[in-house]
Amino acid sequence: MRLIIAEKPSLARAIADALPGRSAKRDGYIEAGDIRVTWCIGHLLEQAPPDDYDERFKRWSLEHLPIVPDKWKLKPRSQARGQLKVIREQLKLASEVVHAGDPDREGQLLVQEVLEHMRWRGPVKRLLISDMNRPAVTRALNKLEDNQRWQPLYEAALARQRADWLYGMNLTRAWTLTGRQAGHDGVLSVGRVQTPLLGLVVRRDEEIENFEPRAFFPLWIEAGVAAGSLKAWWHAAGSPWLARLAAKGTTLPLDDKGRLLDSRPAERLARHLATLTTLGDGHVESVEASDKSQPAPLPYSLSALQVDASRRFRLPAQKVLDTCQALYERHQLITYPRSDCRYLPREHHAGMANIMITACSGDDELERFSGGADFSLRSRAFNDSKVSAHHALAPTGREPDYARLNRDEANLYRMITRNVLAQFYPPHRYREVKVELTFAGEPFRTSGRTLIDEGWKLLFQRASGADDKPDKKSQDTPPPTPLPALEPGEAARVIDCGIEQKETRPPEPFNDASLIQAMMNIARYVEDEAVRRTLRDVDGLGTEATRAGMLETLINRGYLVREGQAMRSTRIGRALIRALPQAVSRPERTALWEQRLNMIYEQGDSAAPFLSELIVDLRALLADSSASRLSAALASVGGATPAARKTGGSRRSSQGKGKTTRRKSSGATTARGSDGTAARKKPAASRRKGSS
């Protein structure tokens, strides 16, 4: 008997539907001839808590740290025992197993850890499904691979799971105990992704609060030429006059972006420019025209979709993930959503016309766009070398029933479909003209743009139902407009001139979109140039599947709060970042972890050195925990106020795989750390005011 183990029940049903013959549902599995399909329900197993290794670890104590298992243990999740029993019974009857976890690192771990736990030693095939439509599942069933090929992916996932347990459990215990010494009554959770992410927000908030605006003074002219007029701006950084003053020892009033910070030079020049009203008092120094071609944006990865959906529809990242899961599992309208890839296999190109025409049906706008598509075009998106375990999000070709979709599902489906449809439109083409003029020996610059072919941009006019607004940057810098015909050397004059007073602005606070984008491009936030170069090849902070949940985790733990669209750090979040060693709160460590995990997967590196180095690192970090530093931070920082929480309830945590709960019990509370172990705490009445 062949036993197929799917990651979740919905995938098991899709596999059973694609098998030949009739299928029958049994208790915990589906039977189809000599094939049986069973399933996991997420992770059926979890890392054992410290007290499973040694009873004395139930009591949290600094003297126990670091806790490092000699032999790792997994234990069944309480709600998973029934399904584990089903799988165990079916394995006894099986001659071959097919691993049908999701096509990513976590999916590989989720099923394979069950097989390892049950000591299965028979043959294992790998079934990779990214599209739950029956034809796609049938194709995948005909392309089974040897699971041994994916053993390095399992080793990387296992190393990540163990490293997260070691790092999160030990540092959470250490800083919770340190917090008590500093007067903070509560669990202080530390993790390899959540803490650097919190650090990004804390540093951005402090940068905004400490920002001192400075005035700057752009000088503009309206220049008249033979064919009309144009507006140009003084290029103070290239000014010969200011350069001469600098040569005489005068400090130039320019910032690092070339902005003029003193109005007096601009006022002096403006008075002279106002006299240059005769054609020939100035001239066109240079005209540089070039035709530009802009390809269509690639199909979405999950993170890219979360960024755009947050900007366009104000959707939190977790809502985007949940909605995509519904489109994938319940409606079967899109392919596997937790993908970090923005490319499609070349073999998909041949069938895309039929898929896209069906996928666009039922929506007037999409139908119109599909009617104008040229499905013979092959864009840069169809690139096998860029596709690994999974490809970009795409419609499956199933006809959508918009009556069954809620508003968010419909909006995200349209976005995903439109980005794929854009691959079958020509590039957006325009002519860009850059002009430099000279008046009184001073340089003035401007640029203009003329449309040649709208191309794919036709598809990206404001979507119906969107409530997105232009950001401040786009309001400050309107798109270039066409310029009059110009020739180098032609005469010019000043029609008008003026000086504007503007202020430098602080950076924008982070929001869902910019935080997801920051996690995708974490190298931008690394100060060391050598490390930054290394990290450009790493996927980023966290994974497609965990980024959205991490934002919600930080909110649930009281470290972040949403204020409108902005993410703001709270007092306890700021104090923790200020007190922690910088190495814990900066992104270099976790991004380098991802690089090492990729090397385990892609190059077959052993996981043992990675974990050994982590333990050495942990000892140094534990030695650097400081109650006095935390106490000083708690006394000095401000921060946003977290939303009030209900008492007597519980809140889920994603640090490691554990829970953090608070409940009343004889006038005292019990805190559960990242490893799920208990630590006795003070009665609620004695808690410090303002602690989270």
From TrEMBL:
This is DNA topoisomerase. Pfam families: Topoisom_bac, Toprim. PROSITE patterns: TOPO_IA_1, TOPO_IA_2, TOPRIM. It catalyses: ATP-independent breakage of single-stranded DNA, followed by passage and rejoining. SMART domains: TOP1Ac, TOP1Bc, TOPRIM. Residues 465-475 have a biased composition (Basic and acidic residues). Its EC number is 5.6.2.1. InterPro entries: Topo_IA, Topo_IA_2, Topo_IA_AS, Topo_IA_cen, Topo_IA_cen_sub1, Topo_IA_cen_sub2, Topo_IA_cen_sub3, Topo_IA_core_domain. Residues 645-658 have a biased composition (Low complexity). Belongs to the type IA topoisomerase family. It comes from Cobetia crustatorum. Residues 679-692 have a biased composition (Basic residues). One of its GO terms (molecular function) is DNA binding. Keywords: DNA-binding, Isomerase, Magnesium, Metal-binding, Topoisomerase. GO terms for biological process: DNA recombination; DNA repair; DNA topological change. The keyword Isomerase applies. Residues 1-133 form the Toprim domain. SUPFAM superfamilies: Prokaryotic type I DNA topoisomerase (SSF56712). Signal peptide: none annotated. Residues 150-622 form the Topo IA-type catalytic domain. One of its GO terms (cellular component) is cytoplasmic replication fork. Residues 463-489, 635-692 are annotated as: Disordered. The lineage of its organism: Bacteria, Pseudomonadati, Pseudomonadota, Gammaproteobacteria, Oceanospirillales.
